[in-house]
């Protein structure tokens, strides 16, 4: 059992430690007791309809009846426990009330959520182990009760990409089971939530999407889908479990979950449409058994959306008036949870079933397209570069959502009479637009087919877009537009303040550290296997983009940011660091320009680009881009630092003038008296009284 934690029973939780009301408990048990077997049955039925259960009978490799039928059941249990664990940790991190006097101490509801999350993570771990074994047996076509299975299993988890991915997810769940009993704060629950997400996200690389055409959009949409489902379903299950212990905080917690559920519903619907479109292909495939199950899933999602709307309109106002009136919430929430369980059962069956569009590699048809995920672009010219486009739907969703949130925050400030700089708004929106072009336009299309195209994307992600975003001051805007919480919980505002005031932020925002991360990333990335991994793997590409944006934002923020955070270094020191970075950046560009060794040769060979002279010329062209194009934003940063330095001197002089007007220029008179004393040896004159 988890170790004992320091617990404070908040005002909202007082008197809520008793037994649940019997009728509500009975309804919850009956509904969920029926829904879970039905969800398992829906999985089997979906696999039967799509003939996934009989596929193995037509192949030589047969893992046996037990593996065929047990694998989807283990996956259902894995998905349910993962969603429940994530939902509990999410509520504990951002919704449940804590100790109002001391945020470092968890409240009673948080304590219960962490206990249940630990138990649920144990089920998640066991089902993940079983699922890993069944997938290995299925892949090898070998029953698990044979002597040959264990060597095949070890080869699967150590040599095959699928096995390594599943093993990484399993290790994340193991860390969760190990460290959850030690968590005693909202900070710890937030960290454990991040670890739990690492147990879910790798599954996106283990499904149909990882090897499909347009695998970038397929994997991104599946990852977004998994996270959205876990937050939505797991959050509702956690609410049903903890709702009886929330007392007067019930309505407030439900409203916070309702906001999360709305975001999750949008993410699930958006990603589901993308993924279904990639798997279905032509619309006539909706008439196939797989397509019909997709239609059923869409209808169930629509019903769930209506249920959420009804809850927001009817249930939440009733709980605001009387937090103890939970019968309607229990009945409604249990029915909604049952529908979610059935939908997840269908989804698991679909995940284990072959879609109409083959999801395997198309290397035998078009090798380059199988590697890129999209058609090979036209020869690299300026018109082609400016006109090329391959939409990254999930990345665009996040960028557009950030722009909408920024505009909404500006509107909130203006409605209450506060002003916000229009140039800052324009800069942030321009940065968002630039990010969309960098991740979906010519830089993204040609970033994997030529070194020079990749360097343009790199410079844009690291040096141009971050400067515009920093000028927009989004953190300051968020803090001004978001009200502070008073119940000991942590919302977006509180987590943002924690991040920007932590000791890690104090370390990272020191100019030498930020500068070293900025320039060190260039050398460490291009002259290591990381560059080729970013080209040949989707995960490497995603991590590359995130790293470039974050390091660029951090460096620009240290130099010209106005957001609250650790104290900035003096302006002369900032200019010195910037000049040093300019020198190192020029050296990096020249090293590429004069280099004779081709970087990432394996990737270019896979793309059938074998002309070494052309590859070297393109790489040197990329070095010229890094040197020339990269120096412009550095000069603009230097100019911005100089302007900020001048404005700071003007503000300091103005403050000193105002202080002199208030105290009769006491500082100047004290200085003159000190000089007079040094010259004459006479004691200072007594101060004049007005």
What does this protein structure show overall?
With 690 residues, this protein is mainly alpha-helical. It is built from 26 helices and two strands. The chain has a two-stranded parallel sheet with strand order 1-2. Helix 2 (65-94) packs across helix 10 (327-351).
How far is the first residue's CA from the last residue's CA?
73 Å
* Global shape: globular
CA radius of gyration: 29 Å
How are strands sequenced across the largest beta sheet?
Answer: 1-2
Mean pLDDT: 80
Portion of residues in beta strands equals: under 5%
Structural class: mainly alpha
Please give the number of β-strands: 2
Task: Give me the strand/helix succession.
Answer: EHHEHHHHHHHHHHHHHHHHHHHHHHHH
User: Helical stretch count?
Assistant: 26
Helix amount, in percent? over 70%
**Biggest sheet record:** 2 strands, parallel
Given as residue ranges, the uncertain stretches (5+ residues, pLDDT < 50) are: 1-21, 56-60
In short:
This protein is mainly α and 690 residues long. Helices cover 72% and strands 1% of the residues.
What keyword list fits this structure?
single chain; 690 residues; 1% strand; globular
């Amino acid at each position: 059992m988890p170790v004992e934690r320091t617990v404070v029973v908040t005002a909202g939780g007082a008197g809520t430690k008793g037994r649940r009301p019997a009728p509500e408990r009975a309804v919850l048990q009956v509904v969920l007791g029926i829904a879970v077997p039905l969800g398992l049955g829906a999985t089997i039925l979906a696999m039967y309809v799509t003939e996934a259960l009989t596929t193995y009978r037509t192949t030589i490799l047969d893992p046996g009846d037990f593996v065929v039928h047990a694998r989807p059941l283990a996956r259902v249990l894995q998905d349910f426990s993962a969603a429940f664990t994530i939902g509990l940790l999410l509520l504990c991190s951002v919704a449940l009330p804590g100790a109002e006097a001391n945020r470092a101490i968890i409240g009673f509801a948080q304590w219960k959520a962490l206990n249940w999350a630990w138990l649920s993570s144990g089920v998640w771990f066991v089902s993940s182990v079983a699922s890993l074994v069944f997938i290995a047996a299925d892949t090898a076509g070998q029953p698990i009760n044979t002597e040959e299975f264990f060597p095949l299993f070890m080869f699967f988890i150590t040599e095959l990409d699928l096995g390594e991915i599943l093993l990484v997810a399993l290790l994340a769940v193991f860390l969760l089971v190990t460290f959850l009993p030690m968590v005693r704060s909202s900070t710890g629950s937030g960290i454990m939530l991040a670890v739990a997400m690492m147990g879910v996200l790798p599954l996106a690389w283990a499904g149909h999407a990882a090897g499909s055409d347009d695998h970038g959009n397929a994997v991104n949409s599946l990852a977004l889908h998994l996270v959205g489902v876990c937050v939505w379903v797991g959050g509702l299950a956690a609410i049903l479990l903890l709702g009886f212990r929330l007392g007067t905080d019930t309505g407030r917690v439900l409203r916070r979950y309702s906001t999360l559920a709305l975001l999750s519903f949008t993410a699930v619907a958006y990603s589901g449409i993308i993924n279904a479109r990639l798997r279905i292909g032509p619309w006539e495939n909706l008439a196939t058994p797989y397509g019909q199950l997709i239609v059923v899933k869409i209808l169930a999602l629509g019903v769930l959306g209506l249920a959420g709307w009804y809850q927001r309109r009817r249930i939440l106002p009733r709980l605001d008036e009387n937090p103890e009136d939970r019968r309607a919430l229990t009945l409604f929430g249990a029915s909604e949870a049952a529908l979610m369980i059935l939908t997840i059962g269908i989804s698991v069956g679909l995940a284990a079933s072959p879609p109409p569009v083959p999801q395997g590699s198309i290397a035998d048809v078009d090798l380059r397209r199988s590697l890129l995920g999209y058609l090979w672009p036209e020869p690299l010219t300026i018109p082609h570069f400016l006109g090329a486009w391959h939409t990254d739907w999930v990345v665009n969703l996040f960028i557009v959502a950030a722009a909408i949130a920024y505009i909404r925050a500006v509107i909130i400030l203006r409605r209450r009479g506060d002003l916000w700089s229009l140039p800052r708004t324009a800069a942030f929106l321009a940065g968002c637009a630039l990010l969309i072009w960098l991740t979906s336009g010519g830089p993204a299309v040609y970033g994997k087919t030529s070194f020079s195209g990749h360097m343009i994307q790199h410079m844009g992600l690291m040096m141009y877009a971050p400067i515009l975003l920093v000028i927009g001051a989004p953190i300051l805007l968020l803090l001004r537009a978001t009200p502070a919480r008073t119940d000991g919980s942590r919302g977006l505002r509180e987590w943002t303040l924690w991040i920007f005031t932590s000791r890690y932020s104090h370390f990272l925002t020191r100019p030498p550290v930020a500068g070293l991360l900025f320039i060190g990333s260039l050398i460490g990335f291009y002259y290591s296997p990381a560059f080729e991994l970013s080209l040949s793997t989707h995960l490497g590409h995603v991590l590359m983009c995130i790293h470039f944006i974050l390091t660029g934002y951090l460096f620009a923020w240290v130099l010209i940011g106005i957001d609250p955070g650790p104290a900035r270094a003096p302006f002369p020191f900032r200019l010195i660091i910037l000049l040093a970075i300019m020198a190192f950046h020029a050296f990096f560009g020249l090293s590429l320009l004069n280099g004779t060794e081709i970087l990432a040769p394996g990737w270019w060979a896979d793309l059938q680009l074998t002309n070494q002279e052309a590859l070297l010329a393109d790489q040197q062209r990329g070095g010229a881009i890094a040197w020339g194009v990269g120096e412009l934003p550095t000069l603009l940063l230097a100019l911005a630092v100089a302007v900020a330095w001048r404005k700071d001197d003007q503000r300091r002089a103005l403050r000193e003038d105002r202080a002199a007007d208030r105290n009769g220029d006491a500082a100047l008179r004290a200085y003159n008296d000190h000089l007079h004393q040094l010259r004459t040896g006479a004691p200072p004159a007594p101060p004049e009284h007005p």
